[in-house]
Amino acid sequence: MIVFQNVSLVYPNGVHALSNVELSVARGEFLFLVGSTGQGKSTLLKCIYKEVAPTSGAVAIDGKPLSQLPSGQVPMLRRKVGVVFQDFKLLHQKTVWENVAYALQVTGASSRDVVRRVPRMLELVGIAHKSKMFPHELSGGEQQRTAIARSLVNNPLILLCDEPTGNLDPETSGEITALLSRINAKGTTVVVATHNQAVVDRMRRRVVRLINGRITHDEEQGRYHVGLG
Predict the structure, then answer these.
(1) How far apart are the C-alpha atoms of 107 and 5, rounded to whole Å?
(2) How many domains does the chain have?
(3) Residue pLDDT, tens place only, 13-36
């Protein structure tokens, strides 16, 4: 599903964000990316949804090299790849329902399709009863659930989460991670970059550690401190 072949990325300021990354993520897999701040986790995710391009090497999604993808087809790629951010990135002037609907509307979905799919997504993430509320009226966990619903409403093959529990308390973090696990169980490939040791250790899924832009350890059913003794 996701393949990195000898990928390196150097930013214009000279920072070596990724170095010779080799990584394969199977369809339907759940993977944690761990490592301290500045080790390359976010950059690796950005390569998957083509926010940045490698300096060398190749990234492929569903067997298609991203380097060969014309710029006009990038929006189509991003319909296959949902992204959830730590700071939610919700539209504060829109309600929960409108935030999720907007992700469909920008793709040209019909009004009938929007009306059919939005409630389904809100029900899936457990906030259908909050549909008329605005982001500032929600808790952090509810805002993150809204962001997840928005990312899922186009039925992506892949869901990328960059520190999805970073601003949440432990109980809410557990709820969000359980939601991601349920989404994964329905067949969506899930990749989560996180500092949340408790969540990683509890779930015991595949863990990939990045240090200085290099993959140093890759362990099935791993723990947060994999590779650190």
Answers:
(1) 31
(2) 1
(3) 999 999 999 999 999 999 999 998
